[in-house]
Amino acid sequence: MKKLLWAFLLLAGAVLHAQQVTSPDKNVVLTFKLSANGEPTYELAYKKKPVIKSSTLGIEVKNGASFINGFKITDTKQQTVDTNWEPVMGEQKTIRNNYTELLVTLSQPANNNRYIRLRFRLFNDGLGFRYEFPKQDGLSYFIVKEEHTQFNLAGDHKIFWIPGDYDTNEYAYTTSKISEIPALQKKATIEINAQRPIENPSVQTPSMMKSADGLYINIHEAALINYPAMSLNVDAGFKFSSHLTPDAVGNNGYMQTDAQTPWRTIVVSDKATDILASKLILNLNEPTKYKDVSWIKPVKYIGVWWEYFVAGKSTWAYGKENNVKLTDDFTKLTPNGKHGATTAHVMEYIDFAAKNGFDAVLVEGWNVGWEDWIGNWKEEVFDFVTPYPDFDVKKLQAYAASKGVKIIMHHETSGSATNYERRLDRAFEFMNDNGYNAVKTGYVGSIIPRGEHHDGQWMVNHYIHVAERAADYKIMVNSHEAVRPTGLNRTYPNWIAQESARGTEFEAMGGLAPEHTTILPFTRLMGGPMDYTPGIFQTDLTYYKTGGNQRVNTTLAKQLAYYVTMYSPLQMAADLPENYNRFPDAFQFIKDVAVDWDNTYVLEAEPGDYVTIARKAKGKNEWFTGGITDENSRTATVAFDYLPKGKKYVATIYADAKDANWKEKPQNYVITKVVVTSKSVLKQYIAPGGGFAISVKEGTTEELKGLKSL
Amino acid sequence: MKKLLWAFLLLAGAVLHAQQVTSPDKNVVLTFKLSANGEPTYELAYKKKPVIKSSTLGIEVKNGASFINGFKITDTKQQTVDTNWEPVMGEQKTIRNNYTELLVTLSQPANNNRYIRLRFRLFNDGLGFRYEFPKQDGLSYFIVKEEHTQFNLAGDHKIFWIPGDYDTNEYAYTTSKISEIPALQKKATIEINAQRPIENPSVQTPSMMKSADGLYINIHEAALINYPAMSLNVDAGFKFSSHLTPDAVGNNGYMQTDAQTPWRTIVVSDKATDILASKLILNLNEPTKYKDVSWIKPVKYIGVWWEYFVAGKSTWAYGKENNVKLTDDFTKLTPNGKHGATTAHVMEYIDFAAKNGFDAVLVEGWNVGWEDWIGNWKEEVFDFVTPYPDFDVKKLQAYAASKGVKIIMHHETSGSATNYERRLDRAFEFMNDNGYNAVKTGYVGSIIPRGEHHDGQWMVNHYIHVAERAADYKIMVNSHEAVRPTGLNRTYPNWIAQESARGTEFEAMGGLAPEHTTILPFTRLMGGPMDYTPGIFQTDLTYYKTGGNQRVNTTLAKQLAYYVTMYSPLQMAADLPENYNRFPDAFQFIKDVAVDWDNTYVLEAEPGDYVTIARKAKGKNEWFTGGITDENSRTATVAFDYLPKGKKYVATIYADAKDANWKEKPQNYVITKVVVTSKSVLKQYIAPGGGFAISVKEGTTEELKGLKSL
């Protein structure tokens, strides 16, 4: 009897105070328990190695009792889910969603048994968990003062990080030990337009780490909806804790039950390639509610854009004036003679797009207001419907249509989100009326509503509002300077890409480190597709004789690789048409490469060092591979074992020449054609700052005959 | 030669350092000069009595040099203007605009001769002046930290005031000496939903004063556009100074040249009636730019409204729940059984409106979201397009149209202006689609964008944005809880009325002092028409047996007088139809009274004591008079000398019975018909808290024969 009682108590103890859950493959183990004072805690291990040591969970409330301690467990539920789903566009046609879930109900006896839930989902590649606040008597509205989610790491990991900031994610990455972050924070906080750095040591997510015992750990969030973005405080002892983006009056989040936080995600593996292959974040997002998604399509595009940065021959603005109002008559401005978005010039781009099979042409600087759009915290900065006098909307609509090309609308808001929202329906109506089906949005500048931040709850809701409104008009959205993505492209598939990191434009504004793009897939791209705008062939920008001495810090071949290594269903060929005309053989890869995929194979990867990825084009027997390195040369190993067995294919390899590197002779490349099979393995040299790209297609018998095997 | 030089210096001194300008009738005299350190100053006198003693003018800039001192006068210009114009709707058909203008250009040698202008307009009844910032090299954008406009009064005047507040103007008036304000401020700051009182002693404008030497002085502002509303600091020595409403980050105003402040207005006379007759504020507003104003029409209306306050039988909300989201299915709510805006009930109101000649029926509580709309700082609070399940939009549209009645839309925002703006086009489209041509807007609650205030620059622009957008859809706007009006109904004539003060609803929420409506015409109504919602016949609210013990603190006859004393082209008959059915003879006045006028005659007035006004109906030989008193009885003297000479008219007099007063027997009234001519003078008794109303019409010969002469 005593024995039985003891067993019962053990069991009761387990139910009330500790729960252990494992991933379907048993590699990931979560332990949940309450501390002595009723504080929820969790631990995470991967293959018995500690990932997160005991860490507390809690939400501090501004206008009432907090959800921090005094909890008791009133219910726990477990279930295992294993399903497949198909994204509208993506890295693979079918995504498996396989996890073990633990749902814990916690009540606070001291607060009328008010209860919350913690939902944990253990995947084979990590953990997602969130706080849930069910609708109940006595809990309808509350204000989040701060979230206190800890991530107590097991050691002084190597980390690839950018500093915490409420307004920008366009920082360069620093690689250091966690313990070195406080000392490096100031240096890492380089000057960016409209920034609001967090004062204490902190990093942004996705935060990529590597432990001394060989674990790759990525912390981020999924499904950031109606809540501020989370940064991570870097506390002493390798402890991270959540740091939410406050609003204009210092509150973090306005909650109404039913409510939940975004998922806090920890992707973990002992293989770096698993991190890149992870679909954990997408799986934690909700399926789309859009009934019709037939109008959402991948886009390969060019644009009147890079010339604004480098060529010195054109400008967004039409007038010489530096003080304009939307109520002005812009036909009365003094033309500066260098306006880029003229009817004639856009027609040249349309011709080039049509000739080379691009879907669309982005045109920036088409609408009035660019003369003084930046830095003035000006609310009525653009109206999104009035073209400059030299941009003929109707003529271009007809011309583009006749060529089978779309024009991509551009809506720079200058951070004035209120102005954008009040004009949004009219802007989208204008797009519908004039044949536009996609828009690039921009948020350069301090936010209006003044006091709000790019990454706060209000703006988080704004971006989603824009995506949803756009869907009403069957418009696709590519947002720049928006909050870092969290997999919402699953739920809002017309939000097809974002910038939300330091992209190619910075190559013209100080340059990017050669390793930058070997880090981005492990950080920024964990959240979703990036409009990185690759494809710069003229990497030495002094070529333009515009006074600058910048260069794009890659070889030409590396730019080709980006079309595969940087996933996005929206891909730009960002360079000037004239430069593509100079290198037609290399340009062929950009013309050929797919932007939507049946499958993806992460062949090699190490954050900060290299990435090699192969992908199968959606619905086609074509495969494309991209490989990149950092500032060091290397030899990539490219297996073709994903190819159907027993069949020969033609591989075209675009590689750095032996004498190329990112600083010298970056345009020296070698293109070779060989026959490959599923048994082929390529050892491919990559130059310092270089890369390579491969297209694999079915060849005619004749073609195959004329080529050597790999 | 010495003499000549001296004369020249005197002249130069006059040009550089002092300017005196007089009103067309020479009664109002402005003296402008620079102080020794180049600070602009002005003085104002009326019939040689000091109104404003030497007071400084200046604008403190946040992000650069201020416009406070170091000025020199570089140019002055004078002109006299005398024109007439016709308002779309108004107290008189033709308004004379007659002033002498002094335009002073001031430059700052120490700031690259940057210059501003001060524009003064001297009318026979006062002064308007403003700061102007012309477009110039080196002055495009600046942020106003504070405006330093002084109004140094000449003595310890009697003042009718409400305390300074960034969010509400719904305070009860306090009458005191200026010197008593600091001690009374706390008591005067009664609790109001969403208030943000100014901490230092301050009052709101329009601020009405009476000097010991018999001057009536009113300080307000005109044409408040793209600038925050001004309150007045009450500094020692009867000195007032401007206090602007800050934004979320503590800035006052974002300016882009060309820019100007609103006009600061000082209406002055030795006759109180002149203050009420003043058109100075309207004259300082810009003419409308609307090309077509044919759709803007006066409106006499009833509404599903007062029953929410008093009758206890109906509610705005449909469901019993207190936690709803716009995404909820409202057909699944538990009906509370008391929803007011049901199809059947609104049809009853439509029937009553049609039978009694009303133009429209206001319906509040028609749309989903009222279950938890207040006090939660909830952004997505209403969508303005989704009716409750028991409100049939299409059926009511057809029914109202068949009866020749309009339904007035209601858009309560709960202060969530961002939510309203993002839905505005859709809301107005919905109105167009469903036959609505007027909307009552509401801003009950703390503003979103959070940190902004009802009276700040952002919201000032919001209200105007709503009016302009509404005009695109030919919709008239009646805003409640908006910033106090400043004559913008001239520029935006579809913004036909506002609440912006303590109106009739407060009779059901604690009551209004009997003198309240003798003050409002001198304060709130100086800015523009008020939707005061008069016409309460059942003044004793205990009648409804709903547990309250409130009463409307007037007699029934006084409620009739309001239709004349409280000018608005939008007038409600606010009581329940059943109460009008109980008093059909008194109700006849409400049915008869005009709401738009050819002319207005302010017969008697003393702020805080009494007001008697007569008006001629627009385009008709009908005249209506209203007279009210405070808590004291009085005998009004009503001359009919505005009537065409030599003709007899029938006057119907609706007066308090001898035994009536606001506390007891308020419903005792006497209706008499008499013959009047332009020579008639009526001595009319008014009960304590009472009033009277008179309609004057042409009578048939028979009618005239049967009546006694006055």
- Main β-sheet description of chain A: 10 strands, antiparallel
Approximately how much helix is present in the residues of chain A? 10-25%
**So what's the overall shape of chain A?**
globular
Named at the architecture level, the CATH assignment of the largest domain in chain A is: Alpha-Beta Barrel
Any idea how many domains of chain A? 2
- Parts with pLDDT < 50 across at least 5 consecutive residues of chain A: 1-15
CATH topology of the largest domain in chain A: TIM Barrel
Rg of chain A, nearest Å:
26 Å
Provide the CATH top-level class of the largest domain in chain A. Answer: Alpha Beta
On the 0 to 100 scale, the average pLDDT of chain A is 96
Count of separate DSSP helical elements of chain A: 14
